[in-house]
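Entry for carboxymethyldethia coenzyme *A complex. Fields follow.
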Amino acid sequence: MDKLKNKFADKGLAKAAEVKEFIKANSEHVLGSYTVDSVFSGMKGMIGLITETSLLDAEEGIRFRGHSIPELRATLPKVAGGSEPLPEGLFYLMLTGELPTEEDVNDVTNAWARRAIVPKHVFNVIDSFPLNAHPMTQFSAAIMALQTESEFAAAYRKGINKKEYWDYTYEDTMNLIARLPRVAAYIYRRTYKFSDHIEPNPKLDWAGNFAHMLGFEGEDFKELMRLYMTIHSDHEGGNVSAHTTHLVGSALSDPYLSLSAAMNGLAGPLHGLANQEVIRWVLELQENLGGGKPSKAQIEEYINKTINEGKVVPGYGHAVLRKTDPRFTAQMEFAKKHMPTDELVNIVWDVYDVAPTILGNYKKIKNPWPNVDAHSGALLVHYGMKEYDFYTVLFGVSRALGVLASLVWDRALGLPLERPKSVTTEWLQNTIAKSKASA
Ligand code: CMX
């Protein structure tokens, strides 16, 4: 058994026993109440899930196992001479609840390098798509093609004890995360670089090697990938991609099936696809003005125009957050250090100067502040990755770290099939009418 798996076995199995006792002692404790409005507003704020890897505070933003993004940027191990955290370290933290040492992180890097082999048929499946297929479609299908490798599915078919589920889920998780950069880079190079593919360099860290396979050799881009892969990984359990992984996984669908489903949710414009929409929106604004840097007054006008046309301003708003997303701030800090005079980055900052006030004037918009997707595209364009249709794939590779770590926890805790109750509007109308009549 590898060291990380050993550590997880200690933590996970002890926690499973603790959770069992906790449920026994507190099963009747009332957590809150919900209303007709909660039911009709996408279950926002209703507690219905357990996710151990991270917790989101509306004002402060995400904490991974209690650690904020600024704390993790300072404390997680880095490559020699680097200043951004290695995502391997965050994965270790999410899985075990403990901050890793440099040796722990090296072990994860080496494990993922060893497990990174992608079978030929996966590339064949990708190659069978027309070049204009969206990269997220190719990505989700490639993960489905990789499902032939699922150790969980094979073991389940043979017959395994429930107590062993987490073990095979862990193996699939490690293999899948190891393989995703190769798959994603293959899609990028095939779609945009005439299938001029680049072999992995096993001497590099996971995110550094991803940058290399994408074709970006500069150390600054590798640093960006380390930061990007860290901050996009997890945002507690209720967001569409995390919830989908949990929901599909709750049917004991293996990690490949669960992650592919999650990626289809991430590909929606109200979720991960917003990162490509932000750049499309800014480029359209520039095009409307005949090019160049728009003034703040022109940006204001364009924001109002977008809303008046019944569209959303991409990169702004959030279902939970009520302040500037710390993932936006982390990227802004990166940009201030590496590209303070970049035109597109400065447009993103100008939008940030004016958008919250305008959006705040629309009473229905609960959060006028930027989310993670408002900044990420401009950083990528700066380094020459201008093919914005690909951006959500980068988000997806990172999101796998959090949602799959959570899936291992789901199996260790023995979390059950998810099956909330649904009713018809008529049922609600009748029930409320009866209750009013009897009052
Ligand atoms: N621009 C225009 N209108 C917005 C808006 C925005 N950025 N954010 C919210 N609204 C609107 C909603 O569309 C909704 O309008 P209707 O009542 O007419 O349907 C109303 O304000 C209320 O929405 P809300 O309660 O504030 O927000 P939700 O929790 O329903 O949705 C989100 C959250 C993120 C989908 C929404 O803010 C949005 O569409 N933002 C733009 C897309 C985006 O950036 N998504 C990425 C989110 C982060 C991620 O998952 O990656």
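NOTE: The first helix runs from residue 3 to 26.
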